From TrEMBL:
Residues at the active site: 226 (nucleophile), 396 (charge relay system), 429 (charge relay system)
Organism field: Cinchona calisaya
InterPro entries linked: AB_hydrolase_fold, AB_hydrolase_lipase, Esterase-like, Lipase_euk
Gene3D superfamilies named in the record: alpha/beta hydrolase
Protein name (Swiss-Prot/TrEMBL): Partial AB-hydrolase lipase domain-containing protein
Residues covered by the Partial AB-hydrolase lipase domain: 95-151
Length: 455
C-alpha cells in the first residue's frame, strides 16, 4: 500500500481550488480530510491518478538525456506548439518543404468526426503511374500523423515508402490538432470526447480505409505504431476491414500491457480508479494544458521521482534518438486524447486482458453489450493467412517482451509464410518511429515485406 504525506495532499488541494472545477475541488478536499484521518485508501487514490497521468500522457512530452543535459530540469509548464504546422497543415509544414507532392483531405466518420488525412502520392523521383500500392500510416496515442515525419526525409518512414514506389496516406485520429472537428459537436463540449479506442476501431479505421480504397481502387498495406497496432488487431480479430487491408506492419504492438516494466505502470495497474473522468471533471486530456501540467509538476516534486528523463522511465531507454529529432518532436507533440480513452488503456494494464471498454457497472455493460462484462477481443480469430510483419524491442517498457510473447502466442497458428517477426534487442518504444537506425533495421524490411505481399 502506498501512502502520501500531508504536504503533498495539501498541494493537490491548493492547486485544485484554482481550477474552478467543483468535482475535482470537492474530491481533493475529501482526500485531504481522509488523509488527516490517516486513511491509506485515500492516499492510494491520489497516487494512482497521478501515476496514470504520468504514464499515459508523457510518452513523448518528456525530456530525455539529450535535452535535459543542455536545458537543465524539464519545465512541465513549457508549451511546445509548432505554430507553422497549426496554421498550414502537415503537408506544408513537413512534406512539400522537402520537395515531395502532398495532398490534404477531410474524411468524415459515420459518427460525425472530421479527420485530417494526408497523401504523399509519389517519391521525389516521381513515376510509378497510377497503380502505386497504397499504404496507410496510423500513429499511436497522444501524438498525430507528424510522428512519421520527425526525422529527415531519408530517415522518415513516410518518405522512404514514397521513394520506394508506394502511395502513402497518413491518418490523424479524432482530438488531435488537425482533427478537432465534428459535424455537430465542438471540442469544448464533453460529448466530443466521449469515446475510446473502441470507437476508433468501429468508426474511424473503417472510414479512413474506405476513403483510401475509393481513391486508389486497391487494397491497402497498413502500418501501425503503439495504439495504431491495437486498432488493427482489434479490427482483424472481429474479421473487419479484411476486404480493404492487404497486409499489416505492427511496430511496438500493445495488445497486452500487463507486464510493463515501468514502476509508474505498476502503480496505475494496481490502484486504478475507474471513475477518473468524474473525479477530474475533464473530458479532454490535454497534456499541454495547465491542469495536467500543474498536476505533473506537483508529482515530479516528490522525492524519488526523476523527471529529467521521464521518456526513458516510461517507454524504456531508447537507443537511437538524436537531439534534433527530439526537439522537433517536442515542438509538435503531445496531442490531446479523451480521458475516457486513457481509462480504457489503463483497464488493459490492470486486467491483463484485451476487452471492450468496461463501464464499471454490470447494468451499464449489459445496456451496451448485452452482458455484465465487456466482451474480449479474441486475437486467435485473426485470419491465419493475413500477411503480418511484427517488430518489437528488448528495451521497450510499454510493449514489454513478455506481453508481446502473449500476443505471439495468440498468433501461433498463423501461416508461417505470412508471418514475419523481428526482435531488436536495443530498441525501445520511440526508436521505431524516431530512431536514426530505423531505416536500416526496420523500414527497409517493411518495404521488402510489402513488396513480397503485393499480389
Amino acid at each position: 500500500m502506498f501512502t502520501l504525506d500531508y504536504e503533498f495532499s495539501t498541494s493537490i488541494y491548493t492547486f485544485s481550488s484554482k481550477l474552478r472545477v467543483p468535482g475535482i475541488r470537492l474530491w481533493a478536499q475529501n482526500q485531504l480530510s481522509e488523509l488527516k484521518q490517516e486513511m491509506a485508501l485515500g492516499c492510494s487514490l491520489n497516487l494512482a491518478i497521478l501515476s496514470l497521468c504520468v504514464l499515459l500522457c508523457l510518452k513523448l512530452n518528456s525530456a530525455n538525456e539529450v535535452v535535459a543535459s543542455s536545458r537543465g530540469p524539464f519545465h512541465l509548464t513549457d508549451t511546445h506548439v509548432d505554430i507553422g504546422a497549426a496554421q498550414s497543415g502537415i503537408c506544408a509544414s513537413a512534406v512539400t518543404m522537402h520537395g515531395y507532392k502532398c495532398q490534404e483531405f477531410d474524411v468524415t466518420t459515420d459518427d460525425g468526426y472530421i479527420l485530417s488525412v494526408q497523401r504523399i502520392p509519389e517519391g521525389l523521383a516521381g513515376g510509378g503511374g497510377m497503380n502505386r500500392p497504397p499504404v496507410l500510416l496510423q500513429h499511436g496515442v497522444l501524438v498525430d500523423g507528424m510522428t512519421w515525419l520527425l526525422n529527415s526525409p531519408q530517415q522518415s518512414l513516410a518518405m522512404i515508402l514514397a521513394d520506394n514506389g508506394f502511395d502513402v496516406w497518413i491518418a490523424n485520429i479524432r482530438g488531435t490538432r488537425f482533427s478537432r472537428r465534428h459535424v455537430k459537436l465542438d471540442p469544448s463540449e464533453p460529448e466530443f470526447w466521449n469515446w475510446t479506442w473502441d470507437d476508433l476501431v468501429i468508426h474511424e479505421l473503417p472510414a479512413v480505409l474506405e476513403f483510401v480504397f475509393q481513391q486508389t481502387g486497391q487494397k491497402i498495406h497498413y502500418v501501425g505504431h503503439s495504439m495504431g497496432t491495437l486498432m488493427a488487431l482489434a479490427a482483424f480479430s472481429e474479421r473487419k476491414q479484411l476486404d480493404k487491408v492487404k497486409s499489416a506492419a505492427l511496430l511496438s504492438p500493445i495488445a497486452y500491457l500487463s507486464h510493463m516494466t515501468t514502476a509508474l505502470g505498476v502503480v496505475a495497474a494496481k490502484a486504478f480508479i475507474g471513475e477518473i473522468t468524474t473525479i477530474f471533471g475533464l473530458s479532454e486530456f490535454n497534456p499541454k494544458g495547465d491542469a495536467v501540467a500543474n498536476l505533473l509538476k506537483i508529482f515530479c516534486a516528490q522525492p524519488g521521482v526523476d523527471c529529467y528523463d521521464l521518456l526513458t522511465a516510461v517507454t524504456g531507454k531508447n537507443c537511437c534518438l538524436n537531439a534534433s529529432t527530439v526537439e522537433i518532436c517536442l515542438k509538435n507533440e503531445p496531442q490531446s486524447t479523451s480521458t475516457k480513452n486513457l481509462v480504457h488503456l489503463a483497464q488493459t494494464v490492470r486486467d491483463g486482458m484485451l476487452t471492450k471498454y468496461d463501464y464499471g457497472n454490470s447494468n451499464y455493460n449489459v445496456a451496451h453489450y448485452g452482458e455484465s462484462r465487456p466482451p474480449p477481443y479474441n486475437l486467435t480469430n485473426i485470419p491465419h493467412d493475413l500477411p503480418i510483419f511484427l517488430s518489437y524491442g528488448g528495451q521497450d517498457a510499454l510493449s514489454d517482451v513478455k506481453d508481446v510473447e502473449t500476443l505471439l502466442d495468440s498468433l501461433k497458428f498463423h501461416d508461417v509464410d505470412k508471418f514475419y517477426v523481428q526482435y531488436i534487442k536495443d530498441y525501445a518504444h520511440a526508436d521505431f518511429i524516431m530512431g536514426v537506425t530505423a531505416k536500416d533495421l526496420v523500414y527497409n524490411q517493411i518495404v521488402k515485406f510489402f513488396r513480397s505481399n503485393q499480389n
